[in-house]
Amino acid sequence: MKSNKRYSLDIVIPCFNEAGGLANTITLVMSCVQSLLSDPEIRLKTFRLILVDDGSRDQTWALIAAASARDQRICGIRLSRNFGHQSALIAGLENVDADACISMDADLQHDVGAIRAMLLAFQDGADLALGVRENRQTDTLFKRGTAYAFYASLRLLGVGIVANHADYRLMSRRALDGLLAHKEVNLFLRGLIPSLGFNVILVPYTCKSRAAGGTKYTLRKMIGLALNGATSFSMRPLRLIGLLGLLVCAISAVSILYVLVIRFAYPERAIAGWASTVLPIFALGGVQILSIGVLGEYIGKIYMEVKRRPRYLIQDSTERGGADKKDDQRNHPDIRS
Ligand code: UDP
Ligand code: MG
Questions:
Q1: 10 φ/ψ angles, rounded to the nearest 5 degrees
Q2: Where are the beta strands (DSSP E) in 134-259?
Q3: Are 203 and 155 in contact (CB under 8 A)?
Q4: SS3 (DSSP) at 220
Q5: Ligand 1 center–CA 207 separation, angstroms
Q6: Could you write out the DSSP letters of every residue in 42-68?
Q7: Banded pLDDT at 135 (limits 50, 70, 90)
Q8: CA 97, CA 105: separation in Å to the nearest integer?
Q9: How many angstroms does the Cα of residue 15 sit away from the middle of ligand 1?
């Protein structure tokens, strides 16, 4: 349901050693939003830029502090060390107090031109406007290959993930509150966000090449992110062990039958000592793998429990009389006046 109320927006940008291009990014984002403030179709009321310095070792923090001193709409958060992109992002998101927030990268690969489309989607009732890159031409073959393998293997593991969506997205207040109700330490936002539900819209954008400096995602960080994605959402790897155990048990049962038939029906073909050597290996192997699989099931359950994820998120509710309170500001916090 649409609302005509005007809303506030916070933009969160995590920055790690981005001194080379940050000044340019700040200028571009600020001028983009400035033009949106006077856009008749956009009902933006106030705006804040939250820059999170993820333990940079260059002049990033000095730049953020200077920008913040110049313009009170810019605020900086400095983490005590490098915690990684996902943690820096959540640090910024936890400090959002607007009706909607947008997260984006500092290197201008996320085209600021898509902000308008995201805000229009939000005005039309979207809680999540996910930026989806239309092209990967700007990436190296290596980056393209690893990205493809990453998305494909996550889907194989059953992790609901939107292809070509990195961390460029708009979230309404209620979607953000839903996200922040997840208290897990190992964050994989790209998997978590599609699992929230709510009204989702995909916003295509053209990915530019990095404005300054090189990628801050080293191979180690990329592998860490992929492993985190694979293990944060899926018990499938653990379950596969159980299935393997079952398979080996089944093979050993068939072999036992085979050996017994040979032993008693065709004793002349039986090789002495073969059955007593091979069968225990199969049988014990099967039992062991199956036992590990059973342990895995329990460990998986414990893992999911300790995350303390919310059991449900509410999108709307009606008053006892049946009236739809959707536009009631108390219950529809994403558009406050
Ligand atoms: N980043 C961060 N901490 C890190 C690594 C990256 O805050 O440990 C930030 C970085 O400054 C950028 C964003 O995360 O704003 C995405 O990083 P990058 O553009 O290097 O990743 P790529 O586009 O190469 O995947
Ligand atoms: Mg980038």
A1: -115, 135
A2: 169-172, 200-205
A3: no
A4: helix
A5: 14
A6: --EEEEEEEEEE-S-SSTHHHHHHHHH
A7: confident
A8: 20
A9: 7
Ligand 1 neighbours, Cβ below 6 Å, are 14-16, 18, 54, 82, 84-85, 88, 105-107, 109, 215-217
- The residue to mutate among 105, 142, 143, having the most atoms of ligand 1 within 8 angstroms of its beta carbon, is 105
**Statement: residue 332 has pLDDT above 50:** no
Quote the tokens at residue 167: 């961390």
Burial profile 313-331: b = 16 or more Cβ within 10 angstroms, e = fewer: beeeeeeeeeeeeeeeeee
* Amino acid making up residue 123: Q
The answer to whether the CB of 229 falls within 8 A of the CB of 159 is yes
CA–centroid distance, 335 to ligand 2, in Å, is 31
Q: Whose CA is nearest to atom 2 of ligand 1?
A: 85
Query: What pLDDT, on a 0 to 100 scale, did the predictor assign at position 330?
Result: 38
* Cα distances (angstroms) measured from residue 296 to each of 235, 243, 282: 9, 11, 21
Dist. CA 66–CA 288, nearest whole Å = 62
The atom of ligand 1 lying closest to the CA of 222 is 25
pLDDT digits (tens, 9 = 90+) for 96-126: 999 999 999 999 889 999 999 999 999 999 9
pTM equals 0.80
Q: State the DSSP code for 136.
A: -
Ligand 1 pocket: which of 107, 135, 216, 222 to mutate (most atoms within 8 A of CB): 216
Determine the Cα–Cα distance for residues 316 and 327; give it in Å rounded to an integer. Answer: 10
Q: Whose CA is nearest to atom 14 of ligand 1?
A: 85
Say how far apart CA 195 and CA 31 lie, in whole Å: 33
Report the amino acid identity of residue 126: A
Pairing of β 200-205 and β 169-172: unpaired
In which element (H, E) is residue 89 found?
Answer: helix 85-94
